[in-house]
């Protein structure tokens, strides 16, 4: 009788250990987010809040992130674009380079098109604010230059962006 009780307790312990190990495997694992996504968010937050004077001095602009399958600029982009227009209207020698990017969803052709269309939408808004169209250059990269290889929704959203930078280049001497 004593040995039967020890055998039952041992079997119960072994089964319990197997069950708890199995339950642990069924739990969703928390995946650490790519640090590039967090860095982009921190940088964008700081750059969105800068003054036009600081924007001109540093020549650093935040990227504009887009919703999936959208070419319409997000609402917060308009305040940024108004600051960019102010800087460009005050400083005639400044030009703007816009680089459109896309996530991995879709064909290469579609991603080239949408990345260019996103940059063109921002350019159109700046032109409506009095900036000469020939002072803005657009480059569409599609999904060629991701900032992260993270395929989560946050990673794909980080890759759907238009990056902008001021330059003092004279277009006629370059293009």
Note the main attributes of this structure.
54% helix, single chain, globular, 60s Ribosomal Protein L30, Chain: A, four-stranded mixed beta sheet, 7 helices, alpha+beta, 175 residues, 4 strands
Describe this protein's structure.
With 175 residues, the chain is of the alpha+beta class. It has one domain: 60s Ribosomal Protein L30, Chain: A (2-Layer Sandwich). The protein contains 7 helices and 4 strands. Strands 1-4-2-3 form a 4-stranded mixed β-sheet. The protein starts with a helix and ends with a helix.
A few lines on this structure:
The protein has helices at residues 2-26, 35-48, 52-58, 75-90, 108-128, 153-159, 171-174; strands at 64-65, 95-100, 136-140, 161-167. With 175 residues, it is of the alpha+beta class.
Specify the helix fraction band. 40-55%
Could you give a short account of the major beta sheet? 4 strands, mixed
How many angstroms separate the termini? 94 Å
Count of structural domains: 1
